[in-house]
From TrEMBL:
GO biological process: inositol metabolic process; signal transduction
GO MF annotation: an example: inositol monophosphate 1-phosphatase activity
Domain of life: Bacteria
Pfam families: Inositol_P (PF00459)
Name of the protein this chain belongs to: Inositol monophosphatase family protein
Positions with a binding annotation for Mg(2+): 65, 83, 85-86, 205
InterPro entries in alphabetical order: Inositol_monoP_metal-BS (IPR020583), Inositol_monophosphatase-like (IPR000760)
Alphabetically ordered keywords of this record: Hydrolase, Magnesium, Metal-binding
Cofactor: Mg(2+)
Length: 253
């Protein structure tokens, strides 16, 4: 994995430069709806990663949010899962709170994960069995938190399942909504949040953070408790929070 890690860190730095050079001048389009944005920078960064991976690891397969590579039929072998800009709406409106997310799976199991908070220049990285790090510093294992002491991040889609935000507010210490799943998951791994929950998330949004949370002993599953499959859109829970089901127990999933 050393060749992979060196390559990812080098390519992430180069991708960050591409973004920094264009952060004040970009074009925006919509995809599925008016809130589903994509920019020329998303596509440029993904195309750059795809080209570099194909040059350096030609036998590997690639899944990217913007479809710049032909996705594999399954997850056998080595598969890269890429989100060139997670949090595109934040990128467009704030020029911060967005990330590059890179996950590497071998036969369906996450082995490497990287989340780069571009604005803060914070690099979250992890290798299976070797711990998770923030800018090179080893992260501590995460302990369990009582629900009423927990700060939980939510994606807006969760409130389609559980519409009463006031009911949730009464059960937790605090609620956050950042709009960038990769960073929210990385924050849970780093102890900056206690949990993250969403009703709808794609594999490229969580693949880069999967090893991070696993290496800090944080639970990462569907709301049903079933494992994530890294193929389909699903709901997601991440955190070590006691009685977490109280956040969604009124909803029939």
């Amino acid at each position: 994995m050393e060749a992979y890690k060196s390559f990812i860190e080098k390519t992430l730095n180069e991708a960050k430069q591409l973004i920094d050079e264009r952060i004040q001048e970009f074009t925006v389009e919509t995809k599925a709806n008016a809130n589903d944005l994509v920019t020329n920078v998303d596509r440029l960064v993904e195309a750059y990663f795809v080209n570099q991976i194909q040059l350096n690891f030609p036998k590997d397969h690639i899944i990217g949010e913007e479809g710049m590579a032909s996705p594999p039929k399954d997850l056998s072998g080595t598969v890269w899962i890429i989100d060139p800009i997670d949090g595109t709406m934040n990128f467009v409106h704030q020029q911060k709170h967005f990330a590059i997310s890179i996950g590497v799976l071998v036969d369906g199991k996450p082995v490497l994960g990287y989340v780069l908070d571009v604005h803060e220049n914070d690099l979250y990285s992890a290798e299976a069995g070797k711990g998770a790090r923030l800018n090179g510093t080893l992260l501590k294992k995460k302990q369990s938190t009582p629900l009423n002491e927990a700060v939980i991040a939510f994606d807006h889609s969760f409130f389609d399942l559980q519409p009463s935000i006031n009911d949730i507010r009464s059960k937790v210490r605090g609620i956050r909504m950042m709009g960038v799943g990769a960073i929210e998951l990385a924050y849970v791994a780093a102890g900056k949040l206690d949990g993250f929950v969403t009703a709808k998330i794609n594999p490229w949004d969580y693949a880069g953070a999967a090893v991070l949370v696993q290496e800090t002993d944080v639970e990462l599953t569907q709301l049903s408790g079933e494992p994530l499959n890294y193929v389909n859109q699903s709901d997601l829970w991440c955190g070590n929070v006691q009685n977490k089901e109280q956040l969604w127990k009124k909803t029939s999933l």
